[in-house]
Amino acid sequence: MLPTADGRGRPWRDHRQVIDGVLWRLRTGVPWRDLPKRYRPRQTVYERFARWEADDTWARLLEHAQVRDDAVGAVEWTVSADSTISRAHRHAAGARKRGRVPGTNWKIRHARRLARRSDTPAAD
Predict the structure, then answer these.
(1) CA dist list (Å): 99 to 5, 90, 96, 107
(2) Which tens digit of pLDDT belongs to each residue from 10-62?
(3) Structural domain tally of the chain?
(4) Domain interval for residue 56
(5) Environment class of residue 27 by beta-carbon count within 10 Å: exposed (0-12), middle (13-18) or buried (19+)?
């Protein structure tokens, strides 16, 4: 089911090694540049992954595996629906915090606050 080389250029690297590199990268979530040496060269692994994604090779492989396993009875098709709602606190909406003005120093803000307090007449 995997594509073969078209006869031009160098022979392709072993499919098994490339697939192992792709699966390792997808499982760990690391960047392509951090692929271990045993799966190198990373450009080959990435280019083969991208090529197979573009021509739907991965989708065909998944469909084949699902059909085969379903025919044997190894797949349990269960659907689960959950109606849980997670509500955020009203203060967690991302608004700017009270009293903080971007670009001002805390000393300036404090001085302004003290000046406002001294301007208000005292209650008799």
Answers:
(1) 65, 18, 9, 12
(2) 777 888 999 999 999 999 999 999 999 998 899 999 999 999 999 999 999 99
(3) 1
(4) 15-72
(5) exposed
